[in-house]
């Protein structure tokens, strides 16, 4: 029996859940599917803050927010989309505040704001160093209140279209049972996250950021845009790529080399700083974040997570020692092309969050704008998909086979280890499709990805269990990543001139 | 080092030359190089997503923030159904958030919070829903419907929020299978990776309940062992 709803949402991070709330509010019957659980998505990892020109910490204006965002985008954004997002920002904060997000406050009982890179004012509202976590959990609580149907551990295999090429549902793997299920819907929203994990261990992201939604949409014929724009965060821990928040530099941390010399501007935009650090590393230097001068008290109050993670993963105590760092993949600006109504190039398919490209970040995203984007455009996507679903009610049930890529994978030879390949591709991309790119190296990377794709049948899975087969899910994720990798390099090859995060020499 | 992992087919020993690493790093290495079939959940690697909670030597930990040691015995969480190896089904545990109505009941705008108000439930809102407290809670051996530590902490988060105007309704909803079922043993507090004390939050909810005349039902019906004592001697 196929499951049916008006609006099917794939992904239960901040964007997906906000979309769900608004679709439901607009009268649609909603089902949300997630390959994990709602509160485990990438949104929970956002620390810095969410931008809105409230002017609670010095003068600020929506116009300045727009101007800063436009500047960082390097001409690759849609000015109207940016203007819309920045104008909606104060309302978004008001909503989050009204549902109980624990924003930090000023002594004057206003929502506290702090400075992040590239902003002309202290514009980022924050909830200690857990902004994303607290926003996500509060929105999740709202979904429970609204009694929204959320199904956990469901993995997207295919986007389904009818004979008129109109999206009508999705083919889903129930990870727990191993069964393939068909979901029918009048509209589908993808809110499935970004693709930073194509860089494998060279990324700050959760291991789930594999670009599944983007790859699946691409196979269904959707248009992608600006896939080459990948943001590298300057301060990932050297060995584990765990993020050390920008607030460490905001508080006054230095970037130094092994001679103890500062060689760059610590609060320069992320792309500029990442390139400076990358150049130093390529000279054979080691690079460190130095926050020793901030003192134990400030570190424990302002950067407790950073101290804990540095101790755990690098065996250094930042109060007394230098933190070894390097730039790693952090956020993907590119994604599914959507219009102002979050509609993709496929009728019936909408997208929001990091998998979508609303063209508000352009070639380089500002810190504090990603949480804002998921709330503002999550709402738009939910509202517009519900409206579309109401106007395009499907009367005929679809008849689809439950055969899928899984049957194909069962026939693969599995003579080569895909985990090793995944790591290899991650390192290859870090080196050749990374912070500084050359045309030749991009071409080499493309050739290698295409060679692996051609030989995909030599890879495969060894676990034959139907029940909760993570070996299989991780292999499908890897297959998806390869499609995304190809799209990223092709897009990078087409852009011959450097722009923002895409730096080509 | 050698560690043992409780898989579906039984306790399985793995040997590794890796040292000074987190349990999650070791599990990933085992999965990639030794046993592709090993099932466990993980995500952020930095203790905020709550995916990799499990038990080591009978104590709940996040695999990503625990340095694994020779001889460790790794098992799935308790009080939840095991799906496969270290993967458990959290659906029922999470459903208690909805049963407890752990949200702001009354959305009121224009209430201003000062710095102190905002700090009132900062720790409670650090919860990552890893379920460690749920696993460590002894009440589940006698009452599977107990609303439980993390959900009650979440209720206290909203009850202690100045923006919540309907506190009485909120505490009324957690009287049955709720705050009075807790034994105040403190296991939840010991295992919480975020330093939350659900026990303390439950005590706060009890005090709040008392303000509305809501008392421990086992006290209310306490009859001193005399049956339905109406004042007249029954012997």
Description:
The complex is a heterodimer of chains A (505) and B (235). In chain A, 37% of the residues lie in helices and 17% in strands. Chain A contains 14 helices and 17 strands. Chain A has helices at residues 14-25, 62-72, 79-98, 131-145, 212-219, 247-250, 270-282, 296-302, 304-314, 369-391, 405-410, 418-432, 439-454, 470-494; strands at residues 3-10, 30-33, 50-51, 113-114, 124-125, 149-151, 154-161, 167-174, 180-190, 224-225, 230-237, 254-257, 287-290, 323-332, 335-337, 349-351, 356-357. The radius of gyration of chain A is 22 Å and the shape is globular. With 235 residues, chain B is an alpha+beta fold. Chain B has helices at residues 23-33, 91-99, 115-119, 132-136, 149-159, 167-172, 187-191, 198-211, 217-220; strands spanning 2-7, 10-15, 53-56, 59-62, 73-75, 81-84, 87-89. In chain B, the strands form 2 sheets. Chain B has a 5-stranded mixed β-sheet. In chain B, helix 5 (149-159) packs across helix 8. Chain B starts with a strand and ends in a 15-residue tail after the last helix. Chains A and B meet through helix 4 and helix 9 of A and helix 1, helix 2, helix 3 and helix 5 of B.
Provide a concise account of the structure shown.
The complex is a heterodimer of chains A (505) and B (235). With 505 residues, chain A is an alpha/beta fold.
What order do the helices and strands come in, and which of them pair?
The complex is a heterodimer of chains A (505) and B (235).
Chain A: E1 3-10, H1 14-25, E2 30-33, E3 50-51, H2 62-72, H3 79-98, E4 113-114, E5 124-125, H4 131-145, E6 149-151, E7 154-161, E8 167-174, E9 180-190, H5 212-219, E10 224-225, E11 230-237, H6 247-250, E12 254-257, H7 270-282, E13 287-290, H8 296-302, H9 304-314, E14 323-332, E15 335-337, E16 349-351, E17 356-357, H10 369-391, H11 405-410, H12 418-432, H13 439-454, H14 470-494
Parallel strand pairs in A: 1-2, 1-9, 2-6, 9-16, 15-17
Antiparallel strand pairs in A: 3-5, 4-5, 7-8, 8-9, 10-15, 11-14, 12-13, 13-14
Helix pairs in contact in A: 1-4, 1-10, 2-3, 3-10, 5-14, 12-13, 13-14
Chain B: E1 2-7, E2 10-15, H1 23-33, E3 53-56, E4 59-62, E5 73-75, E6 81-84, E7 87-89, H2 91-99, H3 115-119, H4 132-136, H5 149-159, H6 167-172, H7 187-191, H8 198-211, H9 217-220
Parallel strand pairs in B: 1-5
Antiparallel strand pairs in B: 1-2, 3-4, 3-5, 6-7
Helix pairs in contact in B: 5-8
